[in-house]
Amino acid sequence: MMKNFIYANPTKIIFGKGSIANITSEIPVSSNVLVLYGGGSIRSNGVYDQVMSALSDHTVLEFSGIEANPHYETCLKAVEFIKKNNIDFLLAVGGGSVLDATKFIAAASQFTGNNPWDILVKHGHNIETALPFGAVITLPATGSEMNNGGVITRAATEEKLAFSSTHTFPIFSVLDPETTYSLPIKQISNGIVDAFVHVIEQYLTVNSNKLLLQDYMAESILQVLVQEAPALIQNGYDYDSRANFMWAATWALNGWIACGVEEDWATHMIGHELTALYGLDHAQTLAIILPGLLHIMKIQKSQKIARLGQVIFNIHEDDAERQLDLTIQAIEKFFNAVGIKTCLSDYGLNSEAIAPIVARFADRGWKLGECKNIESEQIKEILELRL
Ligand code: NZQ
Ligand code: ZN
C-alpha cells in the first residue's frame, strides 16, 4: 500500500554547460561568502576559476582540504573559521564529500548545544537552523546536491554517521556535466554504482508492484545508468552521456522515488562500517554488500528481484529460484563491468575484518532493512558470503 507522505524539495537546480556563471545572481551580493572545497581537483579543472569569476563582486573567503569521506575534525575547523570571519553564506564546490561537509558545517556553526557530535548521534533531528548554502557538484554519485542528507566520519574513533534535516537542503545546486570531464575513471565507476544502489535501496524491497509511478520512475533511473555505463566507462567526453548520468544520479536520491514506499538502506549502513574501519570507497562497500544482502533477503524481496531481472537485465526464467539467482548475479556482473570489485578479498580483507563490524551492530542494537529484521547475526552472514 502507498504510505501517506509529505514531499517538499526546495533546492533550485541550475543545469548545463557554463551554468556556474549563474551563481552570481543566486547569492546576495552583500553576503560574506565562504567557498568550501576538497583536495584541489577544482583548481586543476578550471571550476575554481569559474566560481571565483562568478563571485568577483562578492566578498569571498576560502576553506579547502575537505577529505573524501569528510572528517568531523576538519568540519570543526571550518566552523571556527566561519565564526571568526562572520561568514553568512556557504558555497560547496566539489563531490558529495564537500557537499556533505558543508551541510554539517552549516548546521554546526549555528548549533547551540554543547557538542556538535550530538548532531550526528541524533541523526540531525536536533538541528534547528543552519547557514544558507549553495553547491556546485562536480561528481555525479551521492545526490547530495538535491537532498538534505550528509555523512561525516570521525577520524579519531573511526565512526561514520549520517544525518539529515529540513534545514540542510542546498538553496541551489549547479550541475554542469562538463565539470565531470576531469573525473578519474574510478570515480565515474563509483558514481554509477552509488546511484544504482540508491535506487535499489528504495525500490528493491517488500513493496508490492502497486506503486506504479515510483516503480516506473526508479526503473527509468536504473535504465539510464545501465544504458550509459559503457560510454561513461570508456571515459568518452560525450556531453549527453555525462548529462544523463548527472541528472540520473540526482534523481536517484532527491527523495522523489522514496515517496510512499518502504526503504531498506541496510547495504549503506553496513557499507559505512567498511569505510570507517578499512577505508574503502563508499561505492566499493556497496558493491560488496548488496549481492550478499539480496541473497539473504531473497524470499522477502522476491517479487521485486524477479521484476528487476526482467525489466533491467532482460532475464526471463520459468524457474522462480533461478530468476532470483540470475538477477542477483547480473547486478554483481554489472558492478564488475563498470570496474568495481565485489568481494572483501579483492580489497585485501579476510574473515578477521568481519568481527569488528558485527560487534558494532550488536552494541548499537540497530535493526536494519525495510522489515527491521537485519541485525548483527544477519550482518555476519552477509559479510561471510562476501569473502
Ligand atoms: O577532493 P578533490 O580534490 O575535489 O577530489 C575529489 C575526491 O578525491 C575527486 N573529485 C571530485 N570531483 C572531481 C574530482 N576529481 C576530478 N574531477 C572532478 N570533477 O573525487 C574524489 C572523491 O570525491 P568524494 O566527494 O569523496 O566522492 P563522492 O561524491 O562519491 O562522495 C562520497 C561521500 O558521500 C557520502 C559517502 O558516504 C562519502 O562520504 N554519501 C553521501 C550521501 C548523501 N549526501 O546523500 C549519500 C551517499 O550514499 C553517500 O553515503
Ligand atoms: Zn550511497
Could you please describe the fold and organization of this structure?
With 387 residues, the protein is of the alpha/beta class. It has two domains: 12-179, 3-Layer(aba) Sandwich (Rossmann fold); 184-385, Dehydroquinate synthase-like, alpha domain (Up-down Bundle), CATH 1.20.1090.10. It has 15 helices and eight strands. The strands form two sheets. A six-stranded parallel sheet has the order 1-8-5-4-2-3, sandwiched between helices. Strand 6 (149-154) and strand 7 (159-164) form a beta hairpin. Helix 7 packs antiparallel against helix 8 (212-233), helix 8 packs antiparallel against helix 9 (239-252) and helix 11 (282-296) packs across helix 15 (376-385). The longest helix has 22 residues, at 212-233. The two termini are 37 Å apart. The structure holds 5,6-dihydroxy-NADP and zinc ion (ZN). 5,6-dihydroxy-NADP is lined by residues 38-42, 45, 68-69, 94-98, 100, 138-139, 141-144, 147, 149-151, 179-180, 182-183, 187, 190, 194, 253, 268, 282. Zinc ion (ZN) binds at residues 142, 194, 198, 268, 282.
Descriptive tags:
387 residues, alpha/beta, Rossmann fold, 2 domains, six-stranded parallel sheet, two-stranded antiparallel ribbon, globular, binds 5,6-dihydroxy-NADP, binds zinc ion
Mean pLDDT: 97
Overall geometry? globular
The small-molecule ligands in this entry are: 5,6-dihydroxy-NADP, zinc ion
Overall helicity: 40-55%
How do the SSEs run, as a string of H and E? Answer: EHEHHEHEHHEEEEHHHHHHHHH
Class derived from helix and strand content: alpha/beta
